[in-house]
Structure formats: C-alpha cells, structure tokens
Amino acid sequence: MATEVKVPTLGESITEATLGQWLKQPGDAVAQDEPIASLETDKVAIEVPSPVAGTMGQQHAKVGDTVAVGAVIATIEAGGAAAAAAKPELPDSTPVNPKGPGENMEPREEKADAEEEADGPHLTLSPAVRRIVLEHHLDPSKIKGTGKDGRLTKDDVLAAAEGEKTQPAPEPAPAPAPAPAPAPAAEPQPMAGPAKAGERREERVRMTRLRQTVARRLKEAQNTAAMLTTFNDVDMSAVLEARTRYKDLFEKKHGIRLGFMAFFVKAAALAARDVPAVNASIDGEEIVYHDYMDVSVAVSAPNGLVVPVVRDVQDLGFADIEKKIADFGKRARDGTLKLEEMQGGTFTISNGGVFGSLLSTPIINPPQSAVLGMHRIEERPVVRDGQIVARPMMYLALSYDHRLIDGREAVTFLVRMKEALEDPTRLLIDL
Q1: Catalytic amino acids?
Q2: What dihedral do alpha carbons 142, 143, 145, 149 form, nearest 10°?
Q3: How many CB atoms lie within 10 A of CB 378?
Q4: Among 27, 57, 333, 338, fewest CB within 10 Å belongs to which?
Q5: DSSP string covering 275-315, please?
Q6: Which residues are CB-contacts of 241 (< 8 A; sequence separation ≥ 6)?
Q7: Domains defined along the chain, listed by start
Q8: Beta partners for 390?
Q9: Below-70 pLDDT ranges, the chain
Q10: What is the H or E stretch that residue 249 is in?
C-alpha cells in the first residue's frame, strides 16, 4: 500500500514552491517524519517529511519543477522501515576480530555509515555546498557535518578546504594517480585550471526562487518608494572600549559573545522613539505607526540574503538580542529558518561591514520605510579638541522612503544613533 506525500502548507499567501532537491531516492528506506525533499519558497527552503515509515516510491516531480500546495510529489511504499532498522546489525564482509565480536561491532557500523555517505553524498548536498566540494576536490564523506541531521553546511566544507591547504600532502609513490570521484555532468567545475588557448567558457545556472523573489522585490522598492539615502559617521571608540572591558564577563554570564549588533539595534530603537516615522509604514493612503519595533537583520545564507526578524527589540536586553541574531545566523546557513521568522519586520539593519564595505546605499524592504546600513570600522584622522587624532570610525547610511520620512527626520534619526553609540550610557538611561 502506497502513501502519498503532498506539498505542505507553506505559509500565508504562498501557494507554490520549487522542488530544490530530493533527499531520498526510489528504493531508499525512509523513517516516519524523515525529510525526503527540499522545497524552495520565495523566502526559505522547507523540508518535506515522510508521513509514514517505509520505502521511497515513485517521484512525481523533478528538481526545478514548480509544485502547488497540496500536490502529490511522491509516494511511500510500505515495508522498508524494518529492513532499514535491521541493516546495521547485518554482517558485512569484514573479517571477524579474533578478540571477539564485541571488538568488531563498532568498526562495522562506522564502515557501513561511511559507505552509505560515499554512495550518495550528492543526494544531501545543497547546490552551494556541492559547488565548493567540486571546486576544492573534496570527499564529502570525510567531512563532519554540523547541520541538521549531520548534513554538511557551507562553513563545514570551507573549513575542510582550509585544512587541506594548511596540511602538507604526503608524496605519493610512483604509481598512477588515483582517479577522483567524477563530478556530475550538470555541475562543471568553474575555472578549474587554466583555460586552453582560445577557449572561452560560460556556465548557466537557473536562478533560485529566493533569488528571483529578491530581484523582484528590490526592483519594486525602487519603482514604488521615493527612496533617498542620508549619511553620518560614528566614532566607535566608546563601543570598542565597552566590548573590550566587558566581553569576558558578558560571555561568562550569558553564554554569548558581546557583538556590535546589539549596540546598533538598541540605538535604533532609542532613536525611533524620537523619530517614529522611521519605524512606520504606508498602507494605501494611511500611515501606520507602531508602538513596538521589530528589526529585520540581514544575514547571509548559501542561497542569498535573508532577513529574519528580532521582535520587540525595545524590550530586549543586549544578551537576548545577541542570542537571537546568533541563532538566526546559524539556522540561515543550515537552511532551517521558518517562514514566520522572516515576516513582519518594521525596520531593517544590514551590516555590509562584515564583508569589508566602506559605504553603500541600501534598498528598503517594503512595506518598511527605512533601512540602516552599517559598514566597516577603520581608523581615520579626525579633529578632537583642536588636535588631529586617529579614531575608529564607521559610516552609517539610512535609506528611507521620502513619501513618509522628511530629510530632517532622517538626519535627526542618524544623529540620535550617533549620540547613543558614542556615549553608550545613553542606552542605559534612555536619553
């Protein structure tokens, strides 16, 4: 008897998704609630679990197909679960250790696991991870995954690639070189080695649903909003000093590092009290003001930029903000963010400084009316008390919808943030 696997409800107003990856192939044993496929929606990747235990049956869609909510994408045949559970106990061809069967049991399990990974690593690698594996000629079965269910993340593979560079490779004996595992035909290795004379190469990769949505929304923002950007710079000496003085005590007490984002999130919440339009939005012919602030924090994920929301930041402490942002960052890399965690922000903060950006003009995220851009900290000459001195400076950029926010309000907002960051005591006594 076969059980149908249908596309689950994906969230409010989302009616379809793209089949991004099959995690199980026909004939594979499947446990109940074990993910069998990954779907890409407009905002996030979602795993489809098996409703029953059994064996993976027919697949009714191909990778890249658009599937509607409720559509049948696969079937699960009965009878595979028992065999899957018993598989580790079956004897293999490994000779029995003369010291006794107990000595040989653990190596047999490890070997079975390694063989399973080696047989099908491409089934569980995301496109971004697979590309890095191919570029660096790595064996994914030898890399320990830290993602959900032990899957490899981009950071896992990059760390393994860095380890390969730092460890000298042993000199091989004079013999034919072992043949590397063949790369999939659909995944050519880009720029692997010098091109032959006269050779010009191209690679076409289909845009993910997430990237298509990002492109569409950014263009809509430019077409709809009267967008303008204003700038200011901040002397980060006080923030750096506070982090240096309290980082060890902070981490010991709260179990999380004291970063920069908490300072900026709290400073933005403080400034928004004086300039509420920055935290408002336009709905038709009405302006919606919020007595709360939900900050969308832009984080980098393998398939593009995502913006999970830290809610009610006006009521959160530094430790709560840092923990939420760290958790969002980890789950963005693992692809386990939920749709509801990326909906409903009232203001956005984007930190291009982590990639080395000195200055930028970020684009607002509708229906929000403003976005703050952070940039890298670098020492620059400034005048203090008539003397030219070096100070760690950061440029801030506020892009805003001029239909709602006047230039005076935008400048005032940045000035309030500058005052709070250059004197963090203001954050504690609400000035």
Answers
A1: 402, 406
A2: -10
A3: 15
A4: 27
A5: -GGGG-EEETTEEE--SS--EEE-EEETTEEE--EE--GGG
A6: none
A7: 1-90 (2.40.50.100), 228-429 (3.30.559.10)
A8: 381
A9: 11-13, 42-44, 80-128, 130-131, 133-137, 148-149, 164-195, 210, 302-304, 429-431
A10: helix 237-254
